[in-house]
Request: fold
Amino acid sequence: MIKIAVIGLVQSGKSSLTAALQTLADQGKQDVQFVEVHHPDDLHGHAYDVVLQVVDSTRLEESLMLTPHIIDEQEKIVLAIGRYDLLLKTDHSLNIPKLEQLIGVPTCRVSVRKNYGLPNCLQILLEAAQRPASQAHPIYHLRDQADEDTYRAYVHGVLTETLTHAKDDQHQTRLERIDKVLTNPWLGFPIMLAILYFVFWCTFTLGAYPQEWIETGIGLLGEWMRGLMTEGWFSSLLIDGVLAGVGAVLAFLPNIIILFFFISLMEDSGYMPREAYIMDTIMHRVGLHGRSFIPMLMGFGCNVPAIMAAKDIQNPKDRVLTMLMVPFMSCSARLPVYMLFVDTFFERHKALVMISLYAIGISLSVLFAIVMKRTRWFKQERDDTVNELPEFRMPKVRNTAAHVWERVADYLQKICTVILWASIIIWALEYFPTQDLNDLEHSYLASIGQFVSPLMDPLGFDWKMSVCLITGLPAKEAIVSTLAILYNGDISAAGFTPLTAFSFMLFVLLYFPCVATIATLHREAGKQWAWFTVFHSLFLAWLISFLVYQIGMLF
Reply:
């Protein structure tokens, strides 16, 4: 059997080409096995007959920088130039025969999408596998003194000889010109912040009207039910417990839809990977790969699938550390809490306060990674860069609608399960043993809150706020339903100040998002890291809230 390793920077292109070539070989009854590898080091110690390097024609220099490292591990190598049609669209061209001559490696052009060049590529691979190994590669002689700068100079020289550039950018498509601006090293980051500000502004401004309609409708429904039912524990359960708790979370559904709509647009258009590309420099300063930013971005939706997405990171230390960074991201479960407090206490600066919360979460995750990278568990030498950028494309209505519905359905499911049961339990603890919601001080809920109050008093939290944080352990949306039950839907008259509100939101941001996240960490990273996340997040949430409140009280 001929074993062929497939390696490349573009994951999607590599995977699709591997599958297509394997299918072609099976149809021709060729005894060939294609195996994907992710880094040249993975070739070491394996008996591959030949290596196929998938080269992205739109990012030639970055892709070819991998070639010398592959040759160091495996002398039999074939280059497959992918997405060549995109290179031609920009009025560039590549002299393939001269590239073969300068690098000394057989080269072919392929396109899985257009089913072009696959039989020729397979034939070249089979011929290369049959030839004896040699030291004929021109780059072979660089081995003894080669470093990154030498390799980069060599690759740059090769492309100078083989790549014909467009005279100007007039032949680039509109999307390609937009893409060039979005990934600009100077403009990319400010544009990203401006886009996030616009997203949050729309989330609040456009969502305010349907949110108000839902709140009004729930209020009218409660009044109608109160007039229809006899006063007692059952009516109180339905109106003061279920309707108040579930309704408070349901009112933020329009905001959730708007936010997920914009997130879906960024995902479907290919802008999310560009955010990772922009953040790559920052991530490298931390000691992580820019791809670690993708699970972190996914964490803005839900931390559970974000942690699972981190499994695609090949380096085991980076993989675990990325999983530990994900809980710092403000998931959608925290969003209703933020919206409730921002709407009430920060009317003039809603979008800025929201961005500050997300920025604080990202910043603290970076600081956390810097510290952890200096410990014996995560210290390492190897590093690489983000070069995997899919095509920038127009989102499709069907895909966007499907993504939004998937997130909304999950939100509604949580309302009908976790939030519903949390509302019933909170109401019961508030109603008994006095059976009087006006006598909260002697309820079971007050006993729990007063037990933890000494620990939370330095943060400016009373026993009710402390109880809300406890009920947020299974799901953060439960905090909103608890606030609605405890404060009768009006936190503005509950003793909160903008300072305590911001301190409270910081605590919600920083302590672990839900039990499901910890369970996922337990399964994917191990029991010790799951418990580590529980304790360090609680400590960090308390410390940051304490510092913000105590320093804020000085002014």
In short: The two ends are 75 Å apart (CA to CA). Strands lie at 2-8, 32-36, 50-56, 77-82, 93-94, 107-110, 163-164. The chain has two domains: 2-164, 191-552. Residues 350 and 429 are 34 Å apart (CA to CA).
